[in-house]
Amino acid sequence: MTKKATGPYPLPEGFVEVTRKAPFTSGNGPFYEKILNEKKIIRAFRAEQKHLNGVKLVHGGMLMTFADSALAAAIIHETGRRCVTIKMNSEFLSPAREGDWIYSDVEVIRSTRSVVFVRGDLKVGDRVIFKADAIFHYVHVGR
Predict the structure, then answer these.
(1) Which of 3, 61, 63, 119 ranks highest by number of CB atoms within 10 Å?
(2) Domain 16-138: homologous superfamily in CATH
(3) How far is 28 from 57, CA to CA, in rounded Å?
(4) Does 2 have pLDDT greater than 70?
């Protein structure tokens, strides 16, 4: 992971660019992370023009994609296990605009042998703009 600016904005303290990227999400970033402790990680991105919809707000699909990524990152960070989404419910609460620093606040609720339950908020400053709760299935990666 490397540290760099997010366009004309400086990168907030403690954040580094995520370098391990899935093919789908690599076109949506760059995403950034900040590790708070062994159970808590924050994922973030700076809203760019490419993330906007026709009315110049961050596209709902982008928020859902980012939330899915942030929820999975929190699970992997806390459990050390890879996972895929089974179900995700989302609520759009407030718009985000170009230049906004959008970051996650995620909590792993419960982990079983095969599935994990998680919920999280996406925020701009102290304002919650999006909520999600999800169920992920643990997977074994490798062939």
Answers:
(1) 63
(2) Hotdog Thioesterase (3.10.129.10)
(3) 15
(4) no
